[in-house]
Design a protein that fits this description.
This protein has 299 residues and is an alpha+beta fold. It has nine helices and eleven strands.
Length: 299
């Protein structure tokens, strides 16, 4: 991507260890402008940090190396990472903004305030899954062995041919969000709701943060270990550590129940492309529910 100021260039850095699923890992700014370099060197946020000067391969001549100032993406939630490439490319390449504006845009894109909501949503979703797996563990069900292999799967758990989707709610939020694929794709599906009250770590009662919940689960599943390591690495960042400590819970105050399928909308969509995602908001306050103990009947 060419910037219109000083003939500088912004390039994407990729991890191609898995060719079928390349992941963007950062940005390289090829510039000699001292003002730009100074701004880059000052970048030190939760998810984006300056990492010095690297020699990278020229896109046109792979045998030649070019010096670039590197911005690394670190410990970033996958759902955020997926949207980065298109967002940055559209702003820098399609709108052809200048180098200084490009740097300012990247800084604002990764600001702590902008991403706190999205990060918290991912954190609460993973807490909900942990609550479900711990409840299953008490029932003698090894749900951790049935968790999806990819974070992009339609449902969270696959018990052979019965799929389980876990939704999280808090004491102050009784609404869950279900997308049309989860309603339409499979007949043998169960929606489980994990409901809990969020407390801060400095609470008088014994509360657990997400890292401690993973310790209680004590699973060797690859995806669960990946998530556990990710949140443990967050603890080294002041902003993310504070967020983790704000989202703790009392295990004996947690509810986990199954939504009766009769309350789920019956939806079938026919379209010729272009439809990306539709979501249904369901208030579970007065919905017909079943005890989590009845899970054994389904699996």
């Amino acid at each position: 991507m060419q910037s219109k100021e000083n003939n500088s260039t912004v390039v994407f850095l990729w991890n191609t260890t898995n060719p079928s699923k390349p992941m963007i890992t950062g940005l390289g700014f090829i510039t000699n402008d001292l003002k730009s370099i100074k701004k880059l060197q000052a970048i030190n946020y939760s998810f984006i940090k300056y990492n010095g000067v690297w020699n990278i391969a020229d896109s046109l001549n792979q045998s030649e190396k070019i010096e670039a100032h590197i911005i690394n993406f670190e410990n970033m939630p996958e759902q955020l990472l997926k949207s980065i490439h298109e967002t940055i490319e559209q702003k820098i390449e399609n709108e052809n903004i200048g180098e200084y504006d490009a740097i300012d845009f990247v800084i604002k894109l990764f600001s702590k305030i902008k991403f706190k909501k999205e990060v918290k949503e991912e954190l609460l979703g993973d807490i909900g899954e942990l609550v479900f797996m711990l409840k299953c563990k008490d029932l003698g069900i090894k749900a951790d062995e049935k968790i999806r292999s990819l974070d992009t799967s339609v449902y969270d758990f696959n018990f052979n041919r019965v799929y389980v989707e876990v939704k999280s709610t808090t004491k102050n939020m009784s609404e869950i969000i279900v997308d049309e694929r989860q309603l339409e794709e499979c007949n043998e599906k169960i929606f489980v709701v994990s409901k809990y009250q969020l407390l801060e770590k400095n609470s008088i009662d014994k509360v657990y943060n997400i890292c401690e919940l993973y310790d209680l689960l004590n699973s060797s599943n690859e995806l669960i270990l990946y998530k556990k390591n990710k949140y443990e690495s967050w603890c080294y960042d002041e902003t993310l550590r504070k967020l983790i400590d704000e989202c703790c819970l009392l295990l004996d105050k947690v509810e986990c129940f199954i939504l009766d399928n009769s309350i789920l909308p019956k939806i079938h969509f026919e379209h010729k492309g272009g439809l990306k995602k539709l979501k249904c908001h369901i208030d579970v306050t007065n919905c017909k529910t079943n005890s989590i103990e009845e899970l054994k009947k389904y699996i």
